[in-house]
Amino acid sequence: MTLKERYTKEIAPALAKEFGIANALAVPKISAITVSIGASQGLKDPKFFETAENVLARITGQRAVKTKAKQSIASFKIRKGMVVGLRVTMRGPRMWHFLEKLLRVTFPRIRDFRGITTKHVDARGNISVGFREFLSFPEIRPDEVERVHGLEVTVSNTAGDRAKGIALLRALGFPFND
Description:
Elements: H1 3-19, E1 30-38, H2 47-60, E2 65-68, E3 83-90, H3 92-109, E4 127-131, E5 151-157, H4 162-172
Antiparallel strand pairs: 1-3, 1-5, 2-3, 4-5
Helix pairs in contact: 1-4
């Protein structure tokens, strides 16, 4: 049973019952997953963006969008309009596939992984998890990597508050340690 099927058949009815939600459309659900890379290294090395774009495309199956600076910051040597990161936003079937891969393959492959703290969940119920290196994703083979960099995965949902968001994420299988 896929994660989406499990959500519709088991998790959504359980959440509706737990929070007393009568309307099926009001039950919290995952709306989008964003994978992003901050390009602090790319400011010095122009080849970094090419490598990071390739990594994001292999991990997510989509092309990355370049994010640009909104204002100039002299202390960081950033000018307005300069590319400062890369981002991919997934929705629909690709989002569910990525979430399943994240929970079942990527988290177990992280060395010395002790779970995620609930401090990563914001007031609206969304969670952001940072990875120091992208080697735990199954599409990346360590022997073909030139430079290792970090990335951040943000799972957005329609929960609206922290308690509902944590309940949804726990039901989906996020490995919380507290």
